[in-house]
Amino acid sequence: MRVGVVGLGRMGGNMAVRLMREGHEVVAFSRTPETVARIAEKGAIGAASLEDLVGKLEPPRIVWTMVPAGDPTEQMLLRLSGLLDPGDVLVDGGNSNYKDSKRRADDLGKLGIRFLDSGTSGGIWGLENGYCIMVGGDREAFELAEPVFKTLAPEGGYMHTGPAGSGHFVKMVHNGIEYGMLAAYGEGFEILKSSEYDLDLTEVAGIWRYGSVVRSWLLELLHDALEKDPGLESVRGWVDDSGEGRWTVLTAIEEGVPAPVTALALFARFASRQDESFAAKTIAALRNEFGGHAVKKED
To answer: Is the Cα torsion angle 159, 161, 166, 171 positive or negative in sign?
Structure first.
């Protein structure tokens, strides 16, 4: 199958390579010509522009976009909507808000373009291990593009989740769960590190990979990180978020679903970015005022 791939970053580029390894033809485009040249050296058909990419695909075309969520995706889909024909399939494999995906499916549908929102998990390891893929949108369009999903995913690792928006919705909740899991590992290992025992945290993470009820791929990755840097001295404790955790918490509020773990994990990420907490300053000042408790002064 010939498929267009737009966006050749850490995931998009690896996805293009995985597709080519399994015999698919990839027409690749990126804003950076050097990036296109590098993927062309690996067997892709390079495209100098979006117009060139569309011209090198046969109808019904399948175009997979892998660009940052938000305005970059909005602008890219808008540009492609003016180039594709009715019956073509446009796949958004990024981490878009599911509400945006529902709207985009409606807008593209008016032009006859079929839109699929593909929640994609796997990160930089997906090239070798495969990507977990959650696809929302028209069933017929899904079946047309299914050879692509089947190649990108490991066995049993993809599904059609339902109507437009459902793929990105499922991926959003997936990432919300991830927030909680990461927070639990982080807190647990800090308790271990702060204890009275001189524990080898690398070894602890290592043995927990076998038979433990908390074993997971995340634990395996933590073990790898601790092997490289046992004290994590090279890592600053500043944790970003790319939006899905916020959307999960907001959705829980809208649906009246209690999600305290996810919410606290999100707020912990916010706290990690503060050099100094004004809230903590306020609490310290109040304790001093009502109880005469000692206050640590700024240097």
So the answer is: negative
Which one from 143, 171, 227, 254 is the annotated catalytic residue? 171
Residue 213 structure tokens: 């009820």
Among candidate residues 83, 11, 52, 41, the one with its CA nearest the CA of residue 27: 52
pLDDT-derived band at 299 (thresholds 50, 70, 90) equals low
Q: For this structure, is 178 an active site residue?
A: yes
- What is the per-residue pLDDT across 228-279, written as a single tens digit (0 to 9) for each? 999 999 988 989 988 999 999 999 999 999 999 999 999 999 999 988 888 8
Structure tokens of 120? Answer: 């994609």
Q: Determine which one of 25, 74, 178, 220 is catalytic.
A: 178
User: Does the annotation mark 150 as catalytic?
Assistant: no
Query: Rounded distance, CA 134 to CA 160, Å?
Result: 6
Location of structure tokens 């993470």: 205
| DSSP secondary structure letter of residue 108 | H
Phi-psi region of 70 (alpha: psi -120 to 50; beta: other; left: phi over 0): left
In angstroms, what CA-CA distances link 143 with 42, 137, 139, 140?
A: 28, 11, 6, 5
Nearest to residue 15, comparing CAs of 42, 49, 37, 34?
42
- As a whole number of angstroms, the distance between CA 13 and CA 48 comes to 16
Give the dihedral sign, CA 48/49/55/61: positive
pLDDT digits (tens, 9 = 90+) for 184-215: 999 999 999 999 999 999 999 999 999 999 99
**pTM, full prediction:** 0.93
What would you report as the CA-atom Rg of the chain, rounded to the nearest whole angstrom? 23
DSSP assignment of 278-296: HHHHHHHHHHHHHH----P
Tell how far CA 23 is from the center of its chain. 26
